[in-house]
């Protein structure tokens, strides 16, 4: 298990991050977004993942899902070559 690679992007007022998970089981560790830091939505662009909130699993998110994780969370890839895109609101 390892952390995904990260690519930052920005176009005008839109900014965000792309995370690529090489293997199933790779995980973006538990984190949150303090108020004022900029919440984001997460789009599953390739593959599938699950969001884990402080030890409990939320729903599995498949290709095309849009998620608004506004609580402490981790993201785990369920299959190799999963990609998520975070767009900062």
Describe the structure.
The protein is mostly beta strands. Helix content is 0%, strand content 61%. A five-stranded antiparallel sheet has the order 1-2-9-4-7, with no helix packed on it.
- Please bin the fraction of helical residues: under 10%
Strand order of the largest sheet: 1-2-9-4-7
**Low-confidence parts lasting 5 or more residues at pLDDT below 50?**
none
H/E series, N to C? EEEEEEEEE
Based on helices, strands and strand pairing, what is the structural class? mainly beta
What quaternary form is this? single chain
- State the total count of DSSP E strands: 9
The radius of gyration is 12 Å
Strand percentage: over 45%
Brief sketch in words of this structure:
The chain has about 90 residues and is mainly β. The chain has strands at about 5-10, 15-20, 25-30, 40-45, 50-55, 55-60, 65, 75, 80-89.
Keywords:
89 residues; mainly beta; five-stranded antiparallel beta sheet; four-stranded antiparallel beta sheet; 0% helix
Blueprint (SSEs and pairs):
Blueprint: E1 5-11, E2 14-21, E3 27-31, E4 40-46, E5 48-53, E6 56-62, E7 66-67, E8 73-77, E9 82-88
Antiparallel strand pairs: 1-2, 2-9, 3-8, 4-7, 4-9, 5-6, 5-8
